[in-house]
Design a protein that fits this description.
Layout (H helix, E strand, L loop, with lengths): L4 E5 L3 H12 L4 E5 L2 H5 L8 E6 L7 H10 L6 E5 L4 H9 L4 E4 L4 H12 L5 H16 L3 H11 L4 H8 L3 H15 L4 H12 L2
Parallel strand pairs: 1-2, 1-3, 3-4, 4-5
Helix pairs in contact: 4-10, 6-10, 7-8, 7-9, 8-9
């Protein structure tokens, strides 16, 4: 079986080359594309693996490309990079089917970790069911107020918006949010949103 290939889509040539160099140094095969259209035009010959795409690109942005890949039933998992990250954009990306979300500038190790995890994701439904059950158990450990904050965060509210909605201070939201991340074993917002979407699939 051939080695998986990481397909890198970014209109910024230095960023594209930098990601390809980083992965290549770890013996991960890559192929680069200067636009979403360039990748879509090559779907007939797309090697198995995963896709890394910038979100902000001219003509067709990363989210639009993800939506098109989903419509065409392309199975490749997608990691999104953005220099304009915000909560609602992360939620939108994850709901569109993105498996991970990294904000520029990112640590090299964070990208490598995301790529390795994505390439090794199991397609085994039994594993996914087990993971969903474990996530639901963690969710059940949240207090009522932590659950309120969790719901606000994964629906795309900022700390400030969640504070207004729940009638508490932004600082209090931050404290509850930290508790939620700890109890759910989430290291990042994208991971928490991914967990929420997995739980919804039960």
């Amino acid at each position: 079986m051939s080695e998986p290939v990481v397909h890198i889509v970014d209109d910024d040539a230095p960023m594209r080359d930098s990601v390809a160099f980083l992965l290549g140094a770890e013996n991960i095969q890559t192929r680069t594309y200067e636009s979403a259209r360039a990748l879509l035009d090559r779907l007939h010959a797309l090697e198995s693996g995963c896709i890394i795409t910038d979100i902000r690109m001219p003509e067709m942005n990363g989210l639009e490309m993800v939506t098109e890949l989903k419509r065409l039933q392309v199975p490749h998992p997608v990691i999104v990079l953005t220099g304009h990250a915000d909560v609602s954009l992360a939620v939108q990306a994850m709901k569109a089917g993105v498996v991970d979300f990294l904000e520029k500038p990112f640590e090299d190790e964070a990208l490598l970790r995301a790529v390795r995890a994505t390439l090794s994701r199991s397609g085994d439904e039994a594993c996914r069911q087990k993971e969903r059950a474990e996530l639901a158990e963690r969710l059940a450990q949240l207090t009522a107020r932590e659950r309120d904050v969790y719901e606000a965060i994964v629906s795309g509210d900022s700390n400030k918006a969640a504070a207004i909605k729940l009638g508490i201070s932004p600082r209090t939201v931050e404290i509850y949010r930290a508790n939620v991340m700890t109890k759910m074993h989430a290291n990042s917002l994208s991971e928490l949103v991914r967990m929420a979407l997995q739980i919804e699939q039960r």
